[in-house]
């Protein structure tokens, strides 16, 4: 954003003499917005025995800052099974192993947490 104003200087003469200048102020973005998911909860399901890598769904988070402060990455929290994988860049969620495909209930995800610029997705 840019603010542009004209400033006038007036001397004490009679008649007064004046000069003018243009002042341009650029408002620079700072990282003052956190990444926020577009939904509070995401419900996904996948048929058991689905192919490894099939996309189960995706999550989306947005950050109202300008680049580079609006870049969002996705990570799974507490993913001790390594059965599912989330794409760090686009939020696509898919089974990462045959075990992930066999355990259909693992595809149900209900809780989201976030911190500045890095959204993390919790699987329950
Ligand atoms: Ca930000
Ligand atoms: Ca900002």
What are the main properties of this structure?
4% helix; Immunoglobulin-like; single chain; rod-shaped; mainly beta; 1 helix
Structural commentary:
- This protein has 124 residues and is mostly beta strands.
- It has one domain (36-122): Immunoglobulin-like (Sandwich).
- The chain has one helix at 98-102, and strands spanning 2-10, 18-26, 36-37, 57-58, 61-62, 73-77, 84-86, 92-95, 111-115, 118-122.
- The protein is rod-shaped, with a radius of gyration of 26 Å.
- The protein starts with a strand and ends with a strand.
- Bound molecules: calcium ion (CA) (2 copies).
- One calcium ion binds at residues 29-30, 32-33, 65.
- One calcium ion binds next to loops.
The arrangement of helices and strands along the chain is: EEEEEEEEHEE
Unreliable parts: 101-119
Average the pLDDT over all residues and give the rounded result: 80
The secondary-structure class comes to mainly beta
Amount of helix: under 10%
Multimerization state: single chain
Give the tally of structural domains: 1
Largest sheet: 3 strands, antiparallel
Assign an overall shape.
rod-shaped
Helical stretch tally: 1
Q: For this structure, what is the CATH class?
A: Mainly Beta
Strand content: 35-45%
Distance between the termini: 42 Å
